[in-house]
Amino acid sequence: MTRLLLDVDTGIDDALALAYLASLPDVEFVAVTASPGNVDAHQVASNTLALLELCGRPNVEVAVGALNPLGIPLVTTPETHGPQGLGHAVLPPPAGTVSPRHAADVWVEAARAHPGELTALITAPLTNFALAIRREPRLPELLGRVVIMGGSFYHQGNTTPTAEWNTHVDPHAAKEVYAAYRGLPADRLPIVCSLDTTERMEMRPEHVRRLAAAAGCAVEELVLPEQAEGLRSRSENTLVRHLSDALRFYFEFHRNYDQGYLAHVHDYFAAGVAAGTLEYSTRPATVDVEVESAMLMGTTVADYRNLWNRPHNARIVSDNNPAQAFDELVGSLGRLARRVG
Asked: What does the angle CA 111 – CA 117 – CA 123 come to, to the nearest 5 degrees?
């Protein structure tokens, strides 16, 4: 059993990651917390509650923490994820309500209660995680394993020429988190899924078609570049229909930015790393984050050769297997959709 603490900014690729994790019978959601990012934190929480209920995982604690980044104003991405964060999908309002606890308290109390037992997955800006570490500096030692989606090292940024979205939203939080891991044993260092490898996770219309087929849908689910923008799915499977509508928006966004009719599903890859279902390898490095330069704000730098003469504080994913990852996604998520859809 993998017991997960998650922090998300749901978000189309966060939604796909959450749905995938919900499809795994040996994954337990201890709690999910909401950081501001793709949308504001309260919308993140609402999206997350609704999606978990749609996936047959009600009664998971979902908590809001910070409402803004630590040191700069919040910028959201309606052009990337839609005004509510889930593209063209409109989920039913959740029956559950947001926890009264602060996200940082959720993380600290869970880690103290279960030292070494919890896997942490952060697919959002690192705001809540940084606040939790401020409250409990031993948090990096109390968590069993940490997986972070963020950063860009030898790869073009997706927000500025050098900066990845999650880190650019709250670079001060990212800098604090990496600093907190300096000098810890190698098995305690966070696994960092950066754009260098997450942008190899290119979801395409064929994957949506295969997902619907695996769910047992009677009619092919065709999300095609020649179709009208905003066309809504008519699938009889509720989960397939909502994911298809969300992904169509994401495909359209990537095409509008000359990347092709596809979607980079960064957070799904990080979820598979956290769950232990996907193939990958890592390299140890010392990571730091630029927070002073207006031009380079949020840029992540990795020292692989110890030129800074500082201890390693991260394990950066250096390779992965997209074909294996999408076979896993289609099979597992298809089974979930068949059960709940």
From this structure: 70
Report in angstroms the alpha-carbon separations of 278 from 59, 205, 317. 27, 21, 12
Neighbours of 5 (CB within 10 A): 25
Residue 230's Cβ-count burial label (10 Å; 0-12, 13-18, 19+) is exposed
Least Cα distance to 121 among 46, 26, 29 occurs for 29
Residue 107 tokens read as 């993380």
257: amino acid identity, one letter: Y
Would you say 322 and 200 are in contact if contact means Cβ atoms under 8 Å apart? yes
For strand 280-289 and strand 300-303, is the pairing parallel, antiparallel, or unpaired?
A: antiparallel
pTM as predicted: 0.97
pLDDT digits (tens, 9 = 90+) for 91-138: 999 999 999 999 999 999 999 999 999 999 999 999 999 999 999 999
CA atoms within 13 A on the CB side of 42: 1
CA dihedral 264, 266, 271, 274 (to 10 degrees): 140
Q: Which residue has the tokens 């900014």?
A: 9
Q: Is 200 helix (H, G, I), strand (E, B) or coil?
A: coil
> Exposed, middle or buried: residue 185 (CB in 10 Å: 0-12, 13-18, 19+)?
exposed
* Chain position carrying tokens 């078609």: 209
Q: Using CB atoms within 10 Å of the CB of residue 113, give its burial: 0 to 12 exposed, 13 to 18 middle, 19+ buried.
A: exposed
